[in-house]
Amino acid sequence: MSHATALMYHVLYDGKKEWESLDAEERPYAISVSDFNRQLDAIENANISILDPDKIINEKSLGDTHHGVILTFDDGHSSFYRHAYKILKQRGYRAIFFITTDLIEQRTDFCSWDNLAQMTQDGFMVQAHGKTHRFLPDLDNASLELEFQDPKKLLEQHTGQKVVCMSFPGGRYQPREIEVGKRFGYEVFFTSRIGTITKASLKHNYLFDRVPIRHGMKLDTFLVLAQGRATALWPRKFVYQLKLLLKSLLGNRFYHVLYQKLFN
């Protein structure tokens, strides 16, 4: 069956100095530039297509590929522009960069509006990742609406690109969030749920599963995930479901605090 794997990245770093500058929360998902290049080489050598996300979303089709990948980046770290965008541009590939818009003004280590405008001019997608990065199910209705409304307005204003995609901050969402997003003109929602995108799901669904890429992941593990092999995905699906259960029992905020203490 033809399918695509949406790979989820967060931060790239080059060298010890950049690694040490990262927040503790960023390090579990930080990938070195050398590892990122090796991952792209592995994809190419395995004849896996790196798909243009704009074309996939607009045409609702995977084309003729047997299996491919969509490259996605969450949050808006400055390494999007400094490393990922430049590496991918040189190789002739495209990606989606999901941006938390308040953090552009609040953090000096995030992309600038000029960075984002340049990326869109070169054919990359710059889409929404909320306004504040708060977990959407925890918000009241008025605050939730702003998490969809403000990023769409600001990103379209600064990049000139239509915003139709939302990546849920922290992967947290409920039916209410989807309905509000649709009301503000969002058409596709990227989750943190583990899985692949098939031709059928692309035509009949608006929720896209992804696979997170973590710090220290071995190259052979990365490759079987990029290929979307069920034997590699099922254990991660089980862990994802277990995390969902813990979040429902503990609440998003307490679970996040516990996660930070255990893994950071």
Brief rundown of the structure:
This protein has 264 residues and is of the alpha/beta class.
Explain what this protein looks like in three dimensions.
It is a single chain. The chain has 264 residues and is α/β, with parallel strands linked by helices. It has a single domain, classed as Glycoside hydrolase/deacetylase (TIM Barrel, Alpha-Beta Barrel). It has helices at residues 16-21, 33-45, 53-59, 79-91, 101-106, 113-121, 141-159, 175-183, 199-204, 219-226, 230-250, 252-263; strands spanning 3-9, 11-13, 30-32, 49-50, 67-75, 96-99, 125-128, 165-167, 188-194, 197-198, 207-212. The longest helix has 21 residues, at 230-250.
**What gap, in angstroms, lies between the N and C termini?**
38 Å
Q: What is the fold named in CATH at topology level?
A: TIM Barrel
Described by the principal axes of the CA atoms, the overall outline is: globular
Low-confidence stretches: none
Classify the helix fraction into a percent range.
40-55%
The assigned CATH architecture is Alpha-Beta Barrel
Question: How many distinct helices?
Answer: 12
> How would a textbook summarize the main sheet?
9 strands, mixed
> Which CATH class applies here?
Alpha Beta
- Strand-and-helix sequence, N→C? EEHEHEHEHEHHEHEHEEHEHHH
Q: Give the rounded overall mean pLDDT.
A: 92
> Would you identify the CATH H-level superfamily?
Glycoside hydrolase/deacetylase
Instruction: Provide the domain count.
Output: 1
Question: Class by helix and strand content?
Answer: alpha/beta
Q: Into which percentage range does the β-strand content fall?
A: 15-25%
Compute the number of strand runs. Answer: 11
Query: Which radius of gyration do the C-alpha atoms yield?
Result: 17 Å
